Amino acid sequence: MRRLIDRLAAGRMLARQEFRALIEGREAPGLADYLFERARAACERFYAKDVYMRGLIEFTNYCRNDCLYCGIRRSNLQAERYRLSKDQILACCCQGYALGFRTFVLQGGEDPYFSDARMTEVVSAIHGAYPDCAITLSLGERSYASYQRLFEAGAERYLLRHETANEAHYQHMHPASMSWSQRVRCLYELKEIGYQVGCGFMVGSPGQSTECLIDELYFIKALRPQMVGIGPFIPHKATPYAAQKAGTLELTLFMLGLIRLLEARALLPATTALGTIHPQGRERGVMAGANVVMPNLSPVGVRDKYLLYDNKICTGDEAAECRHCLQNRMRNIGYNLVSARGDCAGFAANTLTGRVITDPEEQEEVYV
Ligand code: SAM
Ligand code: FES
How far is residue 248's CA from residue 232's CA, in Å, rounded to a whole number? Predict the structure, then answer.
């Protein structure tokens, strides 16, 4: 089994049965530790011991969708809905900038109030005020034209978890009105436009099998995203999945390690969900190959309203507290929390032509 990990670390893809053997045999003595050691080494080649921080601004919890797992689904009538104004969002960025953040992630439910015109105004205002910062959007599915307008307004990165790489599993977790092929189409469109793209999935979501996890690895290999956000599924009490079991720390870490070897340059967050299921979840995530953390910059007054799952951590902490807490946590495990924008290694605008190079082979030629 260690040989399989060595092959992955050497940049070779494994066959389905080889991934199956690794995932199902992950409790073999020393195997996970060996994977994490190789994953850390792969990450260090590009990012040394740096961990990037992203300031998360949860600016709306209105959502037109009804994903079965999500606490802000539209059928959850107990959720107290809120939206931040442009000025409130800018105030979050101002506070974040002073704390050293150079990436702002605007995340929200799919809220039609934030039309292209309103969203473009927000993105342009942030871009104008903080031209040295990266703006990441996580607004769900929109049209090609909308993604294009937001890109032109200054957004450079987009997070859109595909949630599962298996179409039947996607249908199991979503209402019939939502489609896997549409979600995947959005990811490819975002890439084509020139965004640094983040996909991702929940580990241990209801109905997920080993085969689904193998599908994830092939999906990532085909998409070649710049970021991959994975975290454990955690039930929310007001959803149809209230009584389902949460994903485990151990399987989430193992998948993080495999993904690091598969896409050595990817930016991989140690997510808040990982910190929620285990007090040292984020540290353990970094020790398994992650290199990003996303402290919350949302105003404390709305934090406990953006509840995707139960018992979410840090809902009462000020941004400054979270930042310093994470800095200490990273220092304790020998890593540095850094202020840099933290772009994906090998992904940059071609300054000669102004063209963004997204083709992986061309990137190898230009940037290696
Ligand atoms: N609306 C945007 C979208 O659809 O991409 C962004 C917001 S959405 C709430 C952010 C992510 O939260 C989802 O992609 C999903 O993976 C995650 N999430 C939702 N419910 C969750 C749960 N119960 N446990 C863990 N993660 C969850
Ligand atoms: Fe929020 Fe530690 S990250 S208190």
Answer: 6
